[in-house]
## 1
Amino acid sequence: MHAKAEKAQIQINRISSAYWRVTFDNPPLNVMGPQFVREFREIITAVEADEGVKVLVFASAVEGFFLNHSDFNADLKELTSIPQGPTGLEAWPDILVRLTRAPVVSIALIRGRATGNGSELSLACDMSFASREKAILSQWEVGVGLVAGGGPMARLPSLMGRQRALEVLLSSDDIDGELAEAYGYVNRSLPDAELDGFVDNLAGRIASFDKWSIANTKRLVNVGSLPPDVEMAAGWDTCMASISRPAAQSRIKALFEQGFHRPGDAEDHLGSYVGRLGR
C-alpha cells in the first residue's frame, strides 16, 4: 500500500441513488498526484458500473482551491506507471475521456482555483458553474515552459473559439468567474452565496429524470462535439516530453523559490507570478 493512501483525497456522498457528490479533499492546496488519480479512476469505474446514478457533482472541501495543478513533489514515475485505462489513454486523460462519455451528467461546482488539472476536469464535465467572487480558472502551463496534458488544447477552441482559447492557453493567466462566463469557459458564474443552492437544485432536477433519456441525449450531443482521442493522447505525450526540458525545469525551480507549492501568495495569485518569470 502507498504510504500517502492512508487518508482518502476524494470523498463520495451519495445524496441519493441517482445523485452523487464527489468532493476533493487534499489540503492544503488540493494538488493532483498519483494517489488522487488512482482514487478518481476507481470512482469513474464505480459510476460506469452503477445503473442508478444519473448525476455527479464535483466540488471541493479545501478553501481557495477547487482542484489545483499536479503535485510536483511526487515521483513522476509513480504517475506514469499507472496502467492505461479502457480507452487506451494514459491514466489522467483516460479518466477525463471516460467522464465525458459516461451515461451520467457531470457538473463542476467551482469555488476557488481550478488550475491546470482543475481546469481540465471542468472542461471534461458536461456543465460547470463558478463562484463569481471566488472562482479562478487557469491553464498556466505555457508560462513555465510546459504543455498541458489533460486536453485543453482539444476542448477549449470548440467552447470559446480559437482566438480566445489561445489567449487562455498562451497568456497562462488567471481567469475569474465573470470573464470565464463571458468567454464560454463555464456555463455561468453566480454570486457565491447562490452557487451551492443553484447547483444542488439543478442536479436534483436532472436526477429525477429518466436515465435512458439522459444518457442518449448526452450520447448524441457527444457525437458532434467531442475531440477525437488522438488529440487527447497527443497533448499528454507532449506534456510528458515538456517536463524534462531545461527551460521548464529552470522556470519551475524559480517558481518554487518564490513560494510555489506552499500555501501563500504565489499559489493564490499564480497567474501573476508566472507572468513575471521571464521578465
## 2
Amino acid sequence: MLSSNINQSAKKLTEQSSIELFNKIKFVNLPSNLSTQEIASSYAMEGESDTPMVLLHGFDSSLLEYRRLFPLLTDKYQVWALDLFGFGFSDRTVEQSFSPESIKTHLHSFWLKMINKPMILVGASMGGATAIDFCLTYPEAVDKLILLDSGGLTKKPIMSKFLFPPLGFLATEFLRNLKVRQSISETAYCDRTYANPDALMCAALHLECENWNKALISFTKSGGYGSFASNLLDIKAQTLIIWGKNDKILGTKPAHKFAQMIPHSKLIWIDNCGHVPHLEKAAITAQHILDFLECS
C-alpha cells in the first residue's frame, strides 16, 4: 500500500493528469512462486471495453509515466497501467530477487488473475523489452504489441554483475539524487520544458518505497535485459513501433532494426520528440495507437 510519506509528497503534484492517475492507484495481492506470500502489486485501471490494454513503464519508473497517454485511450479500451515487479509502487521484500525473469513471471500472474484474455501490450523503453519478452514466452496472451522507443536490442552490460557493496549503494544513491534525475529527464525530452517540477515529482515518488534501492541493485546485478534480436522473428502479434525522431537515450537505429526484424510490424516516427512520445507527444501517440488498432 502507499505509505503516508508517498501520499504526503503526492500533494505536490500540480498537473491534473498526474493527480488523477495517482488517485487511481490500487493494489492487488498476487499469488506467485516468486514469494511464499502474496505480492502487493500496484496498478491503475479505467475503461469498460472488452478489449484490455496494458501499459508497461520504463526503468526505475512507475505507472505515472503514462499519466498523459492513459486518459486518451480509456474511451475505447479497458486500460491498465501496471507497475513492474520491483519497480514503481509495487511491494519489494528483501527475500525476493528481481530480474527480467521475475518481472515476466509477475506480469503473467497479474494477467492470469486480473485479465486472462488476449491483450494489447504496450511497452516504453525498458517496458518495451519486458513486453517483447512476455510476448515471446506467452504469445497466447498478446493480441497486439506496441513498442514506444523500446529497449530490447542492447547486450547486457558486464559490469552490472559486479555491483557489490558499497558500489550498489553508491549507484542507487546517485540515482536518488534529484539533480541527477532532473538531468536524465531533460535528456529524455526534445523540448526540455516538459521536464518541469511535476515531471520530477512523478519520477521520484516511488523512491520513497521501502527497499527501493535493494530491489534496484538486485535487478541491476541480474544483468537486466539483453538483446532479443535473434528471437524477434518469432513474434506473431501485429506490432506498432512508435519512435521519437530526437531520441537521445537510445538513438534512432533500433527503430529501423525492430521494423526489419519483427515480421508484422509498422514503424511510425514522431517529429520533434525525444525518448518519451507518450509524455511529450501524448495526443499524437494516442491517435497513432488508435488508428493502428482500428485498421489491424
## 3
Amino acid sequence: MKITIVGAGAIGGVIGAYLVKGGQDVTFVDIAVDHVKKMNEQGLTIKGTETFTVPVKAYTAAEFVKRDEELELVFLCVKAQHTRDAVRSFKHMLTKNSMVVSFQNGLCEQEIADEIGEEQTIGCFVNLFADYLESGTISYGGIGSVYIGELHGEISPRVEKIVSILASWGNARATDNLSGYIWGKLSYGAILTATALTNETIADVLDNRQNRAMLMDLASEILEVAKEKKIKPMGFDDWEPGLAFPPEARNWDELHAQLDKLVSRLRTYSKTRSGIWRDLAVRKRKTEVPSHLTPIIAEGKSYGIDMRLTEATLSMIIEIEEGKRELSIENLELLHSIHEANLARN
C-alpha cells in the first residue's frame, strides 16, 4: 500500500522513517522547502536511542499537489491549526477507497471528516516525544503509545491493516474507544501546556508536589467535559486520568505514587520539554494550543463547567506567542493563585 505522510515534522518524520526502514512505500510532503531538499539529497535522519538515516522521496506541498496522483493511505501529521487547509489541498486526489489517518494532537478527526466524510477518516491517538531539530533531522526523545480506531468505535479490518503496517515503527494497537484515548491525552495535554509556560522541564514541574493539586484540577476541567459527553478517558504511558478525576474521589497516596512513576518515565526521555515549549522558546511560532483548548473551553462553558484554569493557561500561551509575556515560573504562580481562589470560592 502506498503511504503518504503529510507533515514530515516530529510525528510524521519519526513514523515515516521507521516505515521506510521497514520496507514500506512512503512519500513525504512538507511545506518547508529546505527540509524537503535535505531529505531528498541526504535522507531523513532520526536521532535518539537508535540513530539512523533512510533515503526518502519528498515533495513540497506545491510540488505534491501538481503531481495530482491518486492517494491510498494518508497519514496527516500537521499541526492542529493547519488541518483543514492541508486536507483541502489534497482531497481532490482521494478516491472512494482512500483513507486519511489523523496522527495529530487535539480534536482533528472531526475536522477531517467534515472535509472528506467519516467513511474515509480514521482516528489515531499518538503520544510520541519527538522534535524537529533541523532540515532533514528529527529527534526521537521517548517512545510512547499509538492507538488506531474508527470514529464510531469499531475495530474494523482496515484499522487492523493500519496497525499491521505500523509494526515497522513499534507496538501500535487497535482500539474501540478512540475518544477515550483522545480525551485522556487532552487532559494530559493541558498539564503539558501549563509546563510550557515556564523553562522548567516537564518532569521537574510534575515532580514538585506543590504543583500537583493545581495541575490535577486543571486536567479535571477537561475530564469533566469528557464526563458530560459520556466519554470514559483512558490512561496511557503512566498517566492515569481516573486517579485525578473526580477530584472528590482522589486518593492522594495512589495519585502521588502514579505521578512519581510518570516523572520517572519522563526522566528517561531525552526530550525533556513539550513541543509547545519548543514552538514558543526555540522556533518562535504560534502553537496549536488555541486549536486544542478553545473548543473544549466553549463546550465546557455550555455545560456550566468552571474552566478558569484552562482559560488562564490558554490566555498566557497566546500572550507569550504575541510577545506580551515571558516564559517564567511566575506564570505557574498565577495559575496557583487562580486555583487557590477557586478553592476558596468552593
